[in-house]
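Researcher: Please predict.
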Amino acid sequence: MGYFASTPLLDNVGEMLLGWWRGDVPVGGVIMAAAMAILRMSYFGRRRRDIILESLLCAALALSAYSAIDYLHIPKMLTVAIGGLIGFIGVRKLRGYLSLYLDKRFGTGRDPDNK
């Protein structure tokens, strides 16, 4: 047997990677949301500050969206896809869609700075 065959560190890392791969831990979705936001904002030539803030907001939004996965009976394997979708659409567009939905549903006033 080799030296690395039975070390507890590799067993723990292996379990963590398998949990990440299965979707038990939403780290992959958070990273995907941030990466998609970085690529989208870079493609459109935005400033570095805007890129960083948008990627952090997309990652935070993806992380908070994962709390609803069990409630809505969505398979956990879709965490990366959901993160990619959030990063691709962006926080500003999602906020606009949500404001429009809430306005139609509950008759709330529109946000004045939402364009």
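Model: The CA atoms of residues 96 and 114 lie 6 Å apart.
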